[in-house]
Design a protein that fits this description.
- The chain is an alpha/beta fold.
- Helix content is about 40%, strand content about 15%.
- It is built from eight helices and nine strands.
- The strands form two sheets. It has a seven-stranded mixed beta sheet, with helices on both faces. Strands 6-9 form a two-stranded parallel sheet.
- α3 links the parallel β3 and β4.
């Protein structure tokens, strides 16, 4: 298998001590700032590969999710999150690589393949992989059509999907805002979903769409968002 062009190998041991330190220091700060309420965390299996799939409202979603899970969550992130300059850039790189972000260049035709193969490697090591099926942040707080990468991952690896919803993060950090304000955030996890009945059908586009839509339906039920049957990228370009 061709290795995806990320900046470091997927090493589940190296960042664990830093991950524990980050959680110990920043989780109490997060609870104080956002009065974070977590529902359904017991739905995340204690071991083995699992995909966390949820909505994406704002930048701080990716900061909150790793801090509310009892297992380390690996996820794809933009190169720019780890290549920034100055004190802020160094802190972001330290935080995101420490909590499990894997930087991948997602631009161009190979970006999606690199992200998919990286997720597969994470899951094949028995770890947790987090993904936003919408592919980008919602432009208006509504839930948009999911990309089928989530379906490919679960069908290729057999990993169950745990849907989740971020609720309230867009109110604390609206589009274009800098530092988030104080407020209340709820992170809600649903029951694990498994798709073994579609084993070997990861190239069937109708199956991929059906699996993706079923995951998004669960996310919609957890978040209470209005659903839009359009890709968020198309809505942003309009």
């Amino acid at each position: 298998m061709q290795q995806p062009p990320d900046h470091r190998p997927i090493d589940t041991e190296d960042p664990l001590s830093r991950f524990a330190l980050i959680k110990a220091v920043l989780a109490p700060v997060m609870r104080l700032m956002f009065r974070t309420r977590v529902e359904g965390a017991e739905n995340i299996p204690g071991d083995g590969p699992v995909i966390l799939a949820g909505n994406h409202l704002t930048f701080i979603d990716s900061m909150i999710l790793p801090l509310v899970c009892h297992r380390q969550v690996f996820f794809i992130g933009k190169d720019e999150y780890v290549t920034g300059k100055g004190l802020k850039g160094k802190f972001m790189a330290w935080f995101f690589t420490g909590v499990g972000m894997i930087p991948v260049d997602r631009d161009g035709g190979r970006g999606g393949v690199a992200a998919l193969m990286t997720g597969r490697r994470v899951l094949e090591k028995g770890n947790v992989f987090g993904i936003y099926p919408e592919g980008t942040r919602s432009p208006d707080g509504r839930l948009y059509r999911g990309r089928t990468g989530i379906a490919r991952l679960t069908l290729m690896t057999g990993a169950p999907v745990v849907p989740f919803a971020m609720i309230g993060t867009d109110k604390l950090q609206p589009t274009g805002a800098g530092m988030p304000r104080f407020g209340k955030v709820t992170v809600r996890f649903g029951k694990p979903m498994e798709f073994s009945r579609y084993e070997g059908m990861d190239r069937d586009r109708y199956v991929l769409r059906a699996v993706t839509d079923s995951v998004m339906t669960e996310v919609m039920g957890l978040s209470g968002q209005e659903y839009v049957d359009m890709y968020a990228t198309k809505a942003k370009a309009a």
